[in-house]
Amino acid sequence: MKRYWFALLTLVLATPWATAGAPLPLVTRLQIPLPGRPTRFDYQTQDVPLGRLFISHMGDGTVLVFDTRTDRVIANLKGFPGDTGITAVPSINRVYVSVTGTWLRRALGEGQIAVLDAKTLKLIARVPAGMFPDGSAYVPPLHRLYVSDEFGGTETVIDTQTNRRIATIPLGGSAGMSAYDSVSGTVFVNVQSRRRLDAINPQTDRITEQIPLPMVCDHNHGLLLYPSQRLAFIACDHNARLLVMNLHNMQVTEVHRVGRDPDVLAIDLKRKQLYVASESGVVSVFHIIKNGLRKLGHGYAGDDAHSIAVDPSTGLVYLPIEDLHGKPVLKIMRYQITDSTGSK
User: Fold this and answer.
1) If DSSP states are collapsed to H, E and C, what string results for the chain?
2) CA distance readout (Å), 184 to 34, 171, 203, 233, 247
3) What is the per-residue pLDDT across 159-179, written as a single tens digit (0 to 9) for each?
4) Per-residue pLDDT at 340
5) Could you tell me what percent of the chain has a pLDDT over 90?
6) What is the dihedral of CA 298, 303, 305, 306, to 10 degrees?
7) pTM passes above 0.90
8) Dihedral of the CA atoms 284, 308, 314, 188 (nearest 10)?
9) pLDDT grade, residue 338 (50/70/90)?
10) Mean pLDDT, residues 258-282 taken together
C-alpha cells in the first residue's frame, strides 16, 4: 500500500498541470442550422457506411439524423424524451438510443433503449433499461449491448438478437460510461460515485475486477478505449481532469487538465488524435503517442459544446451547439495547426 501511494504521489508531481499553451487547433468549416429549440444536446454516433450522424437532442426528445456526405439534416425523429446516449452498430444496421423519459418515469425505473433501423429510421423495439440509461457499448461476439444505468447504479445487458433485457448487474454506485475492450473481451464501466473502474466478463456478466482510481480524479464519468495501444482515457467531470490508464497493468500513467466539466471523448484513429469536449464549451485536443498523450491545444468551441464526434475518413469534427443567437446549430470543424500568433 505504501508503494502504491508513493507511486501516486510521484505521478501527480510529475504530471504537467498548466492549462496555458497552444490555442484550439480547430477551424470552423460550416455551421448548419438544426431543427428544434435551443435546448440540450447529448451524445452522437456515426454510421460510416451510410454516411449518417445520429445526434441526441435531449432537450427536445428527438434524434437528429445528419448526412455527412451532403451536409444536411435528413430527419428529425420524435418520441425519445430525455434521450442521452446513442450507439450505432453498422454491422447489424441498428442504432440504440437511451431514453430516460420524464422525471416521473425515471423515478419509476421506466427508462428504455429504443432500437432503430439505421437505414429506414423506423422504430423496431423499446427495451426496459432501468432508471436513467446513459452510455452503451456493443459486444459483437455475443450480440449484446451493455448500458450504464446512471441513477440506478447498475449495468443493463440487452440481447440485440431478441431485443430483450437479459441481465442487470449491480455496481454499488452511480454508473458513468461503458466501453468494450475487443482485445481482452472485457466490458469496462466507470463507477463514478465510487472513483472506480469495474471490469465485467460478458461471458458470465460478472464483475471480475474493481480498479480504484487516484484521488486526483473526482467523478470519473467519460470513458474511451484505444484497445490496439492498450490505453484507456477517463474524464473526471467534477475537477476537469483526464486520466490515461495502461490496460496491461491497469495503472494510471498520466493526468491532464481539460475544460471544466469534461463529458464526451472522441478519437480520430487515422490521425491518432483524442478530443475531449466539456460542458464549459472548451475542447482539448491531444496527439496519441506511445503509451500516452501530447497536448496539441485547447480552446472555447461554443456554448455547452460538450458533445463531439469525429468522422474517421475525413477527420471532420462535429459539435452540436445548443444556442447560437437563439438557434441550435451543428458546428463542423477541421484540424489545423497554428503557430503561437494564431497564423496558419
Assistant:
1) CHHHHHHHHHHHHHCCCCCCCCECCEEEEEEEECCCCCCCCCCEEEECCCCEEEEEECCCCEEEEEECCCCEEEEEEECCCCEEEEEEEHHHCEEEEEECCCHHHHHCCCCEEEEEECCCCCEEEEEECCCCEEEEEEEHHHCEEEEEECCCCEEEEEECCCCEEEEEEECCCCEEEEEEECCCCEEEEEEHHHCEEEEEECCCCEEEEEEECCCCCCCEEEEEEEHHHCEEEEEECCCCEEEEEECCCCEEEEEEECCCCEEEEEEECCCCEEEEEECCCEEEEEEEECCEEEEEEEEECCCCCCCCEECCCCCCEEEEEEEECCEEEEEEEEECCCCCCCCC
2) 40, 21, 12, 16, 9
3) 999 999 999 999 999 999 999
4) 43
5) 87
6) 100
7) yes
8) 90
9) low
10) 97
Paired strand residues for 62:
57, 78
And the C-alpha cell for 176?
458513468
φ, ψ for residue 12 (rounded to 5)? -65, -45
Report residue 73 as a C-alpha cell: 439534416
Give tens-digit pLDDT for 240-253: 999 999 999 999 99
Q: In sequence order, what are the residues at sequence separation of 6 or more whose Cβ sits closer than 8 angstroms to the Cβ of residue 87?
A: 45, 95, 96, 135, 136, 137, 138, 145
Contact 169, 155 (CB under 8 A): yes
Residues 77 and 63 sit within 8 Å (Cβ to Cβ): yes
Distance CA 344, CA 340 (A): 10
